[in-house]
Prior knowledge:
This protein is α/β, with parallel strands linked by helices. The chain has 14 helices and twelve strands. The strands form three sheets. Strands 2-4-1-5-6-7 form a six-stranded mixed sheet, sandwiched between helices. Strands 3-9-8 form a three-stranded mixed sheet, sandwiched between helices. Strands 11-10-12 form a three-stranded antiparallel sheet. A hairpin with a 3-residue loop joins strand 8 and strand 9. Helix 4 (119-150) runs antiparallel to helix 5 (154-171) and helix 5 packs across helix 6. The longest helix is centred in the middle third of the chain and has 32 residues, at 119-150. It is flat and about 60 Å long. It starts with a strand and ends with a strand.
Amino acid sequence: xxxxxxxxxxxxxxxxxxxxxxxxxxxxxxxxxxxxxxxxxxxxxxxxxxxxxxxxxxxxxxxxxxxxxxxxxxxxxxxxxxxxxxxxxxxxxxxxxxxxxxxxxxxxxxxxxxxxxxxxxxxxxxxxxxxxxxxxxxxxxxxxxxxxxxxxxxxxxxxxxxxxxxxxxxxxxxxxxxxxxxxxxxxxxxxxxxxxxxxxxxxxxxxxxxxxxxxxxxxxxxxxxxxxxxxxxxxxxxxxxxxxxxxxxxxxxxxxxxxxxxxxxxxxxxxxxxxxxxxxxxxxxxxxxxxxxxxxxxxxxxxxxxxxxxxxxxxxxxxxxxxxxxxxxxxxxxxxxxxxxxxxxxxxxxxxxxxxxxxxxxxx
Length: 364
């Protein structure tokens, strides 16, 4: 699962990517310095993993990860191929969620492609380009569906009705995620078309250090603008976060954070937010060899969760032995949980809960 970082040129995308992945994507004060999408596999911060490590004392600990893609800056006309438009739109279509970086800081030394700081205008520029591309997708599909609908095909008529709703919404400046569609319409007709503006989105307001805790007027404008959308807003001082990641010493990093009034790096909140945005959750395996966080989609069954470890685990699934994370911590060890009769045995229909500590029995 991938989350793509998008935005206009020079809003802080590559600097943010570097913070998240510790990769060194080129970060320069001019447009299009990121031409090929940089991909980073980023650890998901999780205090529960640290607690399990403390209790189990394993040989190694492996956190959950999420893939972050840094995509070239978009400009007006991208939907018609301006700038790196076609490449940008192709790259973003391949992601599962969008981290939309908006410049919410003033700095005369960093140029803005439109000459002034206005995150709402910037947001609308990108939204419009993505909506225009989605409109193109909807129109192409409608051409085919209408022919089938005219012959009396009931399914085609349903699809046509859903696509006409999408077309009308896009023409009115709405993103697909904000268009009023039934659950069935979304699942049957809309999801297969992979509309760009149907992807979940988080708006990352890039502020200066002084606004890292409480935000500023630009951030408030963004919050109001997206209040009715299904979207998250996160405030992040990306330049400051970059300075923090340069420090090798953990205590120095903590002191830096305390000085500006933060309990943890904003990048950690963003990574967890991206994980949530992708509708993912974590379960754990815990033994002396390894304590590990495994990533699964929310709503996964026990066999599906087992299949993430190995396909044989899913094929030959017999049962899952499950301990709720809180009970594992409360009793202090697997053995004590068993003694207290708190380990559950679950079958194929069990839906895994976030934080479950699991052990699978299988036979192939």
